[in-house]
Amino acid sequence: MAGNSEPLSPRAKLAVTAGKAAAAVSKAAGRGSGSVIGGKVALRLDPDLLGRLAHHLDVILVSATNGKTTTTRLIAEALRAAGPVVSNALGANMPAGITSALAGGSDARYGVIEVDEKYLAGVARDTEPKAIALLNLSRDQLDRAAETRMLAEKWREGLAGTKATVIANADDPLIVWAASSSPNVVWVAAGQEWKDDAWSCPACGGVLQRPGDDWVCGECGFRRPVPSWALNGEYVLDPHGAAWPIHLQLPGRANRANAATSAAVAATFGVPPQVALERMYQVQAVAGRYDVVTFQERQLRLLLAKNPAGWLETFSLIDPPPTPVILSVNARGADGTDTSWLWDVDYTRLAGHPICVIGDRKLDLAVRLEVAGLDFRVCADADEAVRISPPGRIEVIANYTAFQDLRRRVGN
Q1: How far apart are CA 115 and CA 121, in angstroms?
Q2: Per-residue confidence (pLDDT) for residue 194, from 0 to 100
Q3: Fewer CB within 10 Å, N side or C side of the chain?
Q4: How much of the chain is in helix, strand and coil states, percent to nearest 5?
Q5: What 8-state DSSP symbol labels residue 271?
Q6: Which residues of 235-375 form beta strands (DSSP E)?
Q7: Vertex 241, ends 236 and 245: CA angle to 5°?
Q8: Model confidence over 138-188: pLDDT tens digits?
């Protein structure tokens, strides 16, 4: 039963101890938190360790292309109203990182775990979750994760017959297709701003019709399910029709959608929406995202955007022109090495902003901005970009490893 931790076997204890030691050495050497290498060492010694560590927990898995780190954090905060929580709050979301996180949760009741899209089915098999939150699917790291319809199919196959309650976004056809193989689904109308990956029916390949907020396939009849929960402006509507105000310190519609899904997850474990949403207000930033920092006597707001859908949402957050903007793009392993996604982003939304471009792939981005007809400056690094930006708070938008580079440089 969740909450009653059984003693680990000697082998599992050894694996946990060795993993923590490896993580400590890595951290002392300045190579990050050490969670990934620690988890790899532990799993090498005990390949079944992840399941053993999750055995006493009520596990909640969170997966998506965008928003999973933030939603994991919001769910964790909400569930702390009902008991201790262990979570991979820093976003190490593959099996090794998840194993490291759970190794520190022997006294926890809940395990709130962000999971990389590619590993969701395997982690669900190992941890036997009580709930799985599915937020969205869109193009991202196509060189690693493959095409979105294929990923949705893998989720659909992996989650077929799961005992978990699946809390899923009714507005994303790919999510609905993936979740529909599960016997117990709670549908949330969380919205879908980016629709370019969801014009064809995932069930039959036909063209989806999108009247208003609804969607339906004219060929096979696959359609948007009726949601139990819904984001409605600044409120979340529960299954009884009650409207609960969403007060977040995190900006934007996307985070209100994350909060709506998090409230639905919390309710699955008996935490009322009012309590859940009040606790979510405590979250000010998530792994540096949305932080406002001072660098070279200037204020910078750090924003993460990893793929076209994420950039679209981020453009809606920034202050209007003439607010200066710095854009930084890398294409390392953790980002995906294919930068063709830059051409799917509507950078014309930045018209009127003074723009500086940095990062490993600044020239790729410069070509894209040139074609978009924007005025910009290519800079050697963040120092130069900040120095030449006009007065005012600077909005800094970066993809994954570029964001980590910036955090290190600006001391956040």
Answers
A1: 9
A2: 87
A3: N
A4: 40, 20, 45
A5: -
A6: 235-237, 243-245, 292-295, 298-304, 325-328, 355-358
A7: 30
A8: 877 554 445 788 899 999 999 998 999 999 999 999 999 999 999 999 999
CA dist 229 → 42, 191, 261 (Å): 40, 11, 8
CA angle 162, 168, 171 (to 5 degrees): 145
SS3 226: coil
Indicate the helix (H) or strand (E) that contains 266.
helix 253-268
Which pLDDT score is estimated for 131?
A: 98
pLDDT of residue 1: 38
Output the CA angle 228-281-137, nearest 5 degrees: 50
Closest Cα to residue 385, out of 296, 312, 305, 321?
A: 296
DSSP letters for 55-116:
TTSEEEEEE-SSSHHHHHHHHHHHHTTTS-EEE-TT---SHHHHHHHHHT-TT-SEEEEE--
The runs of H, that is alpha helices, within 300-361 are: 308-315
Contact (Cβ atoms closer than 8 angstroms) between residue 298 and residue 327: no
What are the tokens at 107? 């006294």
The answer for residues whose C-beta is within 8 angstroms of residue 370's C-beta and 6 or more apart is none
% of the chain beyond a pLDDT of 90: 73
Mean pLDDT computed over every residue of the chain? 91
Length of the chain in terms of residues written: 412
Which pair of tokens denotes residue 271? 């935490």
Question: Where are the strands (E) in 27-104, listed by range?
Answer: 58-63, 85-87
Whether 154 and 121 have beta carbons less than 8 Å apart is answered as: yes
Stretch 128-138: mean pLDDT, rounded? 96
